[in-house]
Amino acid sequence: MSSAPDLDLDHVAKLARLALTPAEKASFSQQLGDVLHHIEQLAKVDVTGIEPTAHAFPVVNVWADDVARPGLPVEAALRNAPAQRDHMIVVPKVVE
Amino acid sequence: MAVDLFFKSIAELAALLEAKTLSSTELTSALIARKSAVEGRVKAFNSSDDADALAQAAASDARRAAGQARGPLDGIPVGLKDVISVSGQPLTASSKMLANFVSPYDATVTVNLKRAGAVVWGRLNCDEFAMGSSTENSAFGPTANPWDLTRVPGGSSGGSAAALAAGEVIAALGSDTGGSIRQPAALCGVVGLKPTYGLVSRYGLVAFASSLDQIGPFARTVEDAALMLGAIAGHDPLDSTSFKAEIPDYRAGLKQRRPWRLGIPKEYFGAGLDPAVGAAVEKAIAFYKSQGCEIKEVSLPHTQYCLDTYYIIATAEASSNLARFDGIRYGHRAKGAKDVVDLYAQSRAEGFGAEVKRRIILGTYVLSSGYYDAYYLRAQKVRTLIRQDFLNAYREVDALLTPTSPMPAFKLGEKSDPLALYLCDIYTIGVNLAGLPALSVPCGFTPGGLPIGLQLIGQPFREADLLAMAHTYEQAHDWHTRHPQL
Amino acid sequence: MNYEAVIGLEVHVQIRTNSKVFSRVAAGYGQPENTLTDPVILALPGALPVMNKAALDAIIKAGLLLGCDIAPICKWDRKNYFYPDSPKNYQISQYDQPMCLGGAVEIELPGAARNVMGEHKKIPLTRIHLEEDVGKLNHFAADSLVDYNRAGTPLMEIVSEPAMHTADEAFAYLTSLRATMIYGGISDCDMEKGQLRCDANISIRPVGQKELGVKVELKNLNSISYVRDGIAHEIKRQTAVLESGGTLVQETRDYDGQTGLSQSLRSKEMAHDYRYFPDPDLMPVKVDEVWKARLRGECPELPFAKQRRLIESYAVPYTITSVLVWDRALADFFEAAAKLSGKAQAVGNWIVNDLLRELGAAKLTLAAAKVTPAHIAGLVALIDAGTLLPNAAKEVFIEMFATGEQPGAVMERKGLKAVPVDTGELEQWCRDAIAANPKSLADFKAGKESALNGFKGSVMKAAKGKADPKRVDETLRKLLAAM
Questions:
Q1: According to the model, what pLDDT value does residue C346 have?
Q2: Confidence at C268, pLDDT banded by 50, 70, 90
Q3: Which of B81, B114, B194, B415 is catalytic?
Q4: One domain, residues C368 and C407
């Protein structure tokens, strides 16, 4: 069992906006350490001159014409909102 | 003994509906009754709207009475994995995060099934956000394997496979990012097809890893899988990655018989393969040989890198895809957050389960500043090599034969270590990385009575060939006529 | 020590399209909250983006107008960060392969006098890329409310090189860039509606030093004059800090146009790590020569090129062109009237002075006005023929502006046609005027040309405005020469 030397779990969890409990931190650190250790073998592959694959089948220029279509009625748009007021979503006060 | 209605195939039921010896209402009612009888043990459903299903069935019967039946799927109840959107129905992705979410729109596959007349019924359990290989990661509890209720049905589309095997639906849809249709199909003794990337629209599928995800059918028979695929495949202007491919008549194509050249990738028969699974697959290979097929050993040299490549790409994409689950516009919102940053962190901490969190952390890490080139970019390049392996093999063979899963269904709770669970996917993830079609067809049982699946991996957009090959095998065997005792 | 400021601008311009950049729900401003959304805009589970062809056309056109290199292939990236106005918590943008590279914005600096053309300069651009706009947060005492109508509006980010040195240059840059976007039909650039937004990166360094000083990002420069005032204030502030022996810190400051002050946005936030990666949901864009050629064919003449041409072809003064060319419709109106009339300068004066004054007073746009180029040309022709005298012409203009009647008809109806004044009577008025102004007479004889105006005033008074100024001038000179 190994823990990843490079993985700053607090920093990454902050980036991912995930609050982790101490127990989660301990187990994730070890589990992800194993996974990252396994992943290290990718460094052995010679990828010189190899193009990265972003899409399984490369196609370009997939678009639609600029014709507006009806969207969701505001009631449907906000139906699943945890908190709403005046047809808007309520969030804790955002300070820039 | 006559086969119970709920174990019949679409093709058989379509004939009964056509002959009007059976109505969709009767069929749907029979399934609702079957579900009541077995669901307490199988737990394949997250929810189901029985009244809505009966209304759809009545509409189907009315169409048929008016001479306007829409084809073989009209009136057939089909279950959907709970990551595929149905307007007005819950869409939970088996997560606490979406426990109360009701989708306001239909996925394209849902539109297509409804257009074909199918009764779209049931939200089927899965691993949370389709992340897992056992359906144990569901926030609503695991699904049991109908062949042995102490075992997992596989995953992530375990609910779809189990509901079908248990006779609770006639066919189902799942999604496959690294084997999530094929592996549970193998473990539950049904047919599961993962189409070529781009053949079936992803619009309305809760995204796990966008460049790998595909929706595909679960069916009792290869013919049923062909019918289902025909209904859901096709270009969709709402999905930019949807391919403008010609959709053949897959059912008509089942009859084609050729001396196919079949490749056996040697890397798929190494250590870790269960002997019973290996033996069943060898027998299937012998069958194809007896049918005049050329059997050829091939090599996919980058196979050992598939798992790592997959976990980098899939988690990276997932970390971004799942950022939208933040408790703002919908979904679980933590109480008492002191500011918006806290609201995100707490809502996501409470809403997501452990495996989802692990993958978000891993994906965030591999994309973070200073690591992108070493992980993500490198993985994308290795992905190119993996894809080239398959395309090279296809210069010599028409398709590849492999086990679907290295082992049959394992015990619930048996694999608690994430890495051990990830290894369940070693035969299936290469297909997703290469964007290829593949299906799993039952090819026997272990001495303990657990189903075994044979995987056929095909060339891009050649699902018709794959189905014909599987059909050839199925016609000569009776595995698909066996059903679990429940 | 003398300091030099170095300024770079990041300008966001909303592209005017019918639908949003990655979904087909309508784009628009001023609609009721959350009525311009769909599953894509709200980032509902399962929704997927699809590019808007018109937005691509618009950014390529913008690039061609500004002389950028258009990338033969460009892709989409996800910029990952959490913020409540960003529904997916990533923004679809272009990171390392933007649509446009290089190019420049031509600017004119203030001239030595109002009627003298200033120095022209080209401010080089770094890049232009396309991305999606975010929603809008409304802040209240205890919470904030989110409206996603704006989310997904196509947005161009136009980044200049740090190549400007004064607030005037930044002002001129923005004025020119804005006119270019409006000319190209790319955006309405209404800053009040947030269609054009500007952030400035400002640093100062001792004159002669090569390295850049500490950079401050100034945000919320939400009108063109705020941009000028805000930058001027920031340069002054930085200079004062350095001159008093202080040190500057790299920070983001918020400019308040009302108070003219700026305030540091305490950047305790962690360093941004946007985790850019190619968006797997979208395919790349490939731009070929045929596409570019088609858009090049739609590119209009830009303001400064137009100005040079107007001065050359119509011999109109700089002051007139400097008003005309910033409004494409007005410049077109001028050219049409000038061609009809042949008297470009007179036509230009009527447009720049009277027409703009009346449009302003009536709060009308040119397109909504009843006056056409033919009206102006007709008016100038009547004046030129001596049929309409200046004061009467002003009256005719106001009337035809209000009613749309032709100038000749207004003149007839209101009885404003010039009545030819009897030569004897005119001479008498002139003699009386000369007699009544002995001082002006003396001045004129001493070579003071302007003394003539004193007589003219008296003659016009006696003639009750009915005398043709040209004839008055001639008659006075004739009489004075004989004295």
A1: 96
A2: very low
A3: B81
A4: yes
User: Does one domain contain both C269 and C401?
Assistant: no
Nearest residue, CB atoms, C53 vs list A64, A77, A92: A64
Pick the catalytic residue from B48, B133, B134, B156. B156
B263 closest CA partner among B389, B366, B372, B109:
B389
Residue C297 domain-assigned? Answer: no
Q: Which residue of A has its CA nearest to B316?
A: A16
Mean pLDDT for the stretch of residues B73-98: 98
Residues C278 and C382 in one domain: no
Position C202 pLDDT exceeds 60: yes
CA–CA distance, A55 with C457 (Å, rounded to integer): 83
CATH of the domain at B36: 3.90.1300.10
Assigned token pair, B483:
């059903």
pLDDT in tens, B22-45: 999 999 999 999 999 999 999 999
Q: Given a cut of 50, is residue C291 above it in pLDDT?
A: yes
Cα B279 to Cα B274: distance, rounded to the nearest angstrom: 9
- Are both C438 and C332 inside the same structural domain? no
Tell me the percentage of chain C whose pLDDT exceeds 70: 99
What pLDDT is attached to residue C234? 95
Question: Which chains pack against C, by 3+ Cβ pairs within 8 A?
Answer: A, B
* Claim to verify: residue C336 and residue C475 sit in the same structural domain: no
Q: Taking residues B152-161, report their average pLDDT.
A: 98
Query: Could you give the 3-state DSSP secondary structure of residue C269?
Result: coil
- Annotated catalytic residue B283: no
Residue C116 CB coordination number (10 Å):
10
Contact B240 C50 (CB under 8 A): yes
- Which tokens sit at B278? 């290996």
pTM: 0.92
Total tally of structural domains belonging to chain C: 3
Q: What token pair was written down for A34? A: 């194993």
Confidence tier at A1 by pLDDT (50, 70, 90): very low
Give Cα separations from C118 to A31, A59, B418, C158, C327 (angstroms). Answer: 68, 50, 70, 25, 19
Domain residues for the domain of C373 are 303-413
Sheet holding C136-139, edge to edge: A84-85, A88-92, C143-147, C136-139
Q: Report the alpha-carbon distance of residue C2 to residue C22 in Å, rounded.
A: 49
Inter-chain touch A38–B211, beta carbons under 8 Å? no
Q: B291-306 in b/e burial notation, b at 16+ Cβ within 10 A?
A: bebeeeebebebbebb
Full residue range of the structural domain in which residue B62 is found: 7-262+397-481
Name chain B contacts of A53, Cβ cutoff 8 Å. Answer: 380-381, 383-384, 387
In a domain, B108, yes or no: yes
Alpha-carbon gap, residue B402 to B390, rounded angstroms: 13
Helix (H, G, I), strand (E, B), or coil: what is residue C307? helix
Is residue C298 a part of any domain in this protein?
no
Domain annotation covers residue C90: yes
Q: What digits encode the pLDDT tens for the residues B377-412?
A: 999 999 999 999 999 999 999 999 999 999 999 999
Count of the separate structural domains present in chain B: 1
Q: Is the pLDDT of residue B322 over 90?
A: yes
Whether C400 and C435 map to the same domain: the answer is no
Q: What is the band of B202 on the pLDDT scale with cuts at 50, 70, 90?
A: very high
d(CA C230, CA C237): 10
Asked whether B84 and B126 are in contact (CB, 8 A), the reply is no
User: Does C151 map to a domain?
Assistant: yes
pLDDT-derived band at A74 (thresholds 50, 70, 90) equals: very high
Grade residue A4 by pLDDT with cuts at 50, 70 and 90: low
Residues C478 and C347 in one domain: no
Mean pLDDT of B103-124: 98
Cα–Cα dist C114/B327, whole Å: 57
| Same domain flag for C119 and C244 | yes
Whether pLDDT at C423 is above 60: yes
